[in-house]
Amino acid sequence: MMATVSAAVSNVAALSLACNYPTLASIPHSVINGYKNVLAIAVETDYSFPLAEKVKAFLADPSAFAVAAAPAATDSAAPAAAAAAAPEPEEEEEEDMGFSLLD
Q1: Positive or negative CA dihedral for 36, 37, 38, 43?
Q2: Reduced to 3 states, what is the DSSP secondary structure of residue 101?
Q3: This prediction's pTM
Q4: Would the pLDDT of 98 be above 90?
Q5: What are the tens digits of pLDDT across the range 51-67?
Q6: I want to staple 42 with a disulfide (CB 3.0 to 4.6 A). Which of 25, 34, 52, 62 is the partner?
Q7: Among residues 95, 102, 101, which one has the least CA distance to residue 3?
């Protein structure tokens, strides 16, 4: 039942985003899309805010962030190798219940 409700909410959010009609299901997506637009403007112009500074610093020198993450990766190399060797379970296919959006 939860899967059906989740699918319905996803459909409502997708439909309202496509129609530019705000609903409770689409508001989080609209806010994130707006943030992405403001961040893109901040990257291309001189306008800045604290979170945009982090993105600008990463775009200016991505290797500085890769070096900081490298020591943590070497410490956990053994568990990561074991996790990579474990086979992934196959995903179940969604069943078509015979309903469509316009029925």
Answers
A1: positive
A2: coil
A3: 0.52
A4: no
A5: 889 888 888 888 877 76
A6: 52
A7: 95
